[in-house]
Amino acid sequence: MGLIEVLCNTYGPTGREHRVREIIAKELSGFCPEVYTDRLGNLIAHRPATSKRGQKIMLCAHMDEIGLIVTYIDKAGFLRFTNVGGVFAERVPYQRVVFENGITGIVGIEPSKDGSKSAGRPKFDSMYIDIGARDRKSAEKRVRIGDIACFDQEVVYIDKKRVAGKAIDDRIGCYCLIEVAKRLKKSIHDIYFVFSVQEEVGARGARTGAYAIDPTYAIAVDVTDTGDTPEAHKMQVSVGNGVAIKVKDSLFIANPVIKDKLADYAQALSIPHQFEILEHGSTDAAFIQLVRGGVLSGVLSIPTRYIHSTSELCDLGDVNAAVRLLAHVCERGLGKG
Question: What is the pTM of this model?
Answer without folding.
Answer: 0.94
